[in-house]
Amino acid sequence: MPSVTSADVARASGVSRTTVSYVLNGTAGAKISEATRERVREAARSLGYSPSAAARTLRRGRNDIVLCVLPDWPVGPIIDTLLDDLATALAGRGLTILVHHDRGPEPLAELWRQVTPLAVVGLSRFDDDDVRAMVQAGIKVVGTTLDEDADRGVFAVPQTQIGRLQVTHLADRGHTHLAYAAPDDPRLAAFTDRRVAGARLECAERGLPEPQVATVPLDVDAAVAALRAWRTGPHPVTAVAAYNDDVAIAVLAAARAEGLRVPDDVAVLGVDDTPAARLAAPPLSTVWQAVDAQAAHLAASVVATLDGTALPARPDDLFHVVTRAST
Amino acid sequence: MPSVTSADVARASGVSRTTVSYVLNGTAGAKISEATRERVREAARSLGYSPSAAARTLRRGRNDIVLCVLPDWPVGPIIDTLLDDLATALAGRGLTILVHHDRGPEPLAELWRQVTPLAVVGLSRFDDDDVRAMVQAGIKVVGTTLDEDADRGVFAVPQTQIGRLQVTHLADRGHTHLAYAAPDDPRLAAFTDRRVAGARLECAERGLPEPQVATVPLDVDAAVAALRAWRTGPHPVTAVAAYNDDVAIAVLAAARAEGLRVPDDVAVLGVDDTPAARLAAPPLSTVWQAVDAQAAHLAASVVATLDGTALPARPDDLFHVVTRAST
DNA sequence: CTGAAAGCGCTTACAG
DNA sequence: CTGAAAGCGCTTACAG
Predict the structure, then answer these.
(1) A190 shares its domain with A224
(2) What is the CATH number of the domain that holds B190?
(3) Strand D closer than 7 Å to the CB of A57?
(4) Are B137 and B164 in a shared domain?
(5) Is strand D less than 7 A from the beta carbon of A152?
(6) Which of A320, B150, B238, B273 could form a disulfide bond with B288, CB atoms 3.0-4.6 angstroms apart?
(7) Across the A/B interface, how many CB contacts are shorter than 8 Å?
(8) In B 33-92, which Cβ lie closer than 7 Å to strand D?
(9) Cis peptide leading into B107, omega within 30 of 0?
């Protein structure tokens, strides 16, 4: 607890706290002899001095933390990569990234007031009120949208494109009666809704009937039930666009249980290109996401926001289909 | 930026800052009339006052943040659950949980000095030096170990037990020549090494030959190569304990490619009980982890550490085997 | 029951 | 080139 303060360093090196601060922060315009600088640095080192973040924050009005707010959806490798790249991009500027998993109704305001970060990066969309309050408090904000609109300060990963791409791939192979297999996890609704909407749009533009949407739990019996319903009626579904590879694998398991041939009786297309997709029977065609490009874009967006420079252009070619044996 | 301070609230409600502080913090022993209290609360509300965390931290020497340090390994649903439960347990005490993904060589000290948290929870093991420094700075520490030792302040999830349990399950079914399928991801080494060690120990105690350990990338060709090597020689392997369900599914894919029957020619046992395990062909036997019990124990450990009370007993029955068609 | 005042540790005009 | 001093906003003995 006998914490070392800048006064201790000043005393030990025979200078004032001002000088200590100048030296340690490398303040421009302070002309201090190299000998003094070295003396101060050495004293700081030997005393194990590390400045109090609270005091610095109180004085400066902000600190060196970038707060990253994650929504409630399950964290997967994509988010991991996003955060990794962001951490690397910001580490070079002396910024530390801290992550908060947004769950329940705890207001965002509590959080950023607690932390007083330099910037807040949201991987979910912020309320306009929250954004206004943060900006007013001098905190930089980088939002995210799952939609096509690319407002200023917004990092965008348009989910509708994924649904469209899936339909395009299946329609190109001659399928006309499509199904969309939605996931069971309600936390994914923000993604599901947009991907389904994209699939609907693409079907409409191509003059195809609406895709038949059903939830497919990750369970053989439940998937069989969904598959049977799709195969019933005058126009049985011949191709399924699945929310992701996990759901697609459930559909494959159902097809196996029903004795349907994939892709001859029913084609299946996933999203994510997980290792499991390669290993599935048959190997699963899937939508690959350019995670690295997304991550680089997010990192660049945050850096640009911090610097107040223009936001980088959104990368295109964020997605493409990896064709395997299931379509 | 014209931030509202406690002085503003004091002025608006006609009292001193002392009184504002007492009322808003519910300081015990301060006898303040209900009328005054209400006046202060109302003023705070209408001015949109929220105390400066930095000032409070500077004054008190610590804040209301619990910092959770995650190691480099990929975050999966288990960690998600752990963090979820922890956040819920701490929210009731007005504590906010913030997560830092430990990557690269940035020293831990930088981080906790930046944040000045009330407590640090490590899901990786801390250096003894770090622990000492944190404790000396008045920060509570909850460490984690993947081993059997249950030191004070340590949350433990013994990984050797998993390897032992896998061998037990396979040996009970009459298998004597076992293989261990390790994952490709070097970040998982801390887990892999311990699970393999557990498998070795259990084999030794049962008088079985050592398990043949090989890395099995999540890729059919690579898995086929590993499987062939295991099946070669005078004593071909008849059962594979896989690091997790993903690796097990790679082994299943290899068996399929080689025309081997599962479990008759080769039995396969995973870990995690993911949805993919249920959906595999054949459905995969796997070690289930009591994530909820682990999470509850972690949360209780943290709370006990904060309160300075005795740590909860470690739950037993953390793991058991779910038997399906692959063993 | 309430207020004046000190002080947490830092940074930064302002004076030399 | 360097130092004395103010002040960031809060909490908390200490005095009434």
Answers:
(1) yes
(2) 3.40.50.2300
(3) no
(4) no
(5) no
(6) B273
(7) 158
(8) 49, 51-52, 55-56, 58-60
(9) no
Q: CA-to-CA distance for B131 and A172, rounded, in angstroms?
A: 60
Separation of CA A61 and C1' C9 in angstroms? 14
CA distance B51 to B60: 13
> What secondary structure letter does DSSP report for A270?
E
Residues of chain B with Cβ-Cβ distance to A279 below 8 Å are: 218-220, 223, 249-250, 252-253
Pairwise CA distance, residues A219 & B141, whole Å = 41
Answer whether the bond into residue A263 is a cis peptide, omega within 30°: yes
Strand C, nucleotides < 7 Å from a protein CB: these are 1-5, 7-13
Please indicate, yes or no, whether residues B215 and B308 belong to a single structural domain of this protein.
no
Token duo for residue A210: 């609406």
Please list the residues that pair with B322 across neighbouring strands.
B286
Contacts of B58 in chain A (CB under 8 A): 52, 54-55, 58
Q: Are residues B40 and B72 in the same domain?
A: no
Residue for token pair 């609907």: A200
Report the residue from B63, B250, B279 with minimal CB separation from A249.
B279
Antiparallel, parallel or unpaired: β A239-242 and A178-182 = parallel
Q: Which chain A positions have a beta carbon within 8 Å of B80's beta carbon? A: 74-75, 101
Query: Is the residue at B145 inside a domain?
Result: yes
Could you say which of A257, A273, A289 is where a domain stops? A289
**Could you tell me the distance in Å between the CA of residue A15 and the C1' of nucleotide D4?**
12
Alpha helices in A183-244 (DSSP H): 189-205, 220-231
- Chain A CA closest to residue B97: A100
Query: Are B259 and B178 members of one domain?
Result: yes
> Which of B159, B228, B224, B216 shows the shortest CA–CA distance to B192?
B159
- Nearest protein residue to nucleotide D12, judged by CA and C1' positions: B18
Nearest one of A193, A117, A121, A111 to A155, comparing CA atoms: A121
A325 found inside a domain:
no
Q: Which of B75, B114, B115 to mutate to test the interface with A (most CBs of A within 10 A)?
A: B114
Instruction: Calculate the CA A327 to chain-centre distance.
Output: 29
Q: Which residue of B has its CA nearest to A104?
A: B88
Q: Based on the domain organization, do A165 and A277 belong to the same domain?
A: yes
Query: Which residue range forms the structural domain that includes residue B296?
Result: 62-157+292-313
| B168 and B273 inside one domain | yes
Q: B36: domain CATH number? A: 1.10.260.40
A318: in domain:
no
Per-position pLDDT tens, chain B of length 327: 457 888 888 888 888 888 898 888 887 776 788 888 888 888 888 888 888 888 888 888 778 889 999 887 776 777 888 888 888 888 888 788 899 888 766 778 778 877 888 899 988 778 888 888 887 777 888 887 777 665 656 777 889 999 999 999 999 999 999 999 999 999 899 899 999 999 999 999 999 999 999 999 999 999 999 999 999 989 999 999 999 999 999 999 999 999 999 999 999 999 999 999 999 999 999 999 998 888 888 889 888 888 888 888 888 888 999 999 999
CA–C1' distance A113–C9 (Å)? 20
The minimum CA-CA distance between A245 and chain B, rounded to whole Å, is 10
Distance in Å, alpha carbon of A82 to nearest chain B alpha carbon: 12
Q: Are A127 and A139 in a shared domain? A: yes
Between CA B72 and CA A80 the distance in angstroms is: 10
Does residue A215 belong to any structural domain of this protein? Answer: yes
The number of distinct structural domains making up chain A is 3
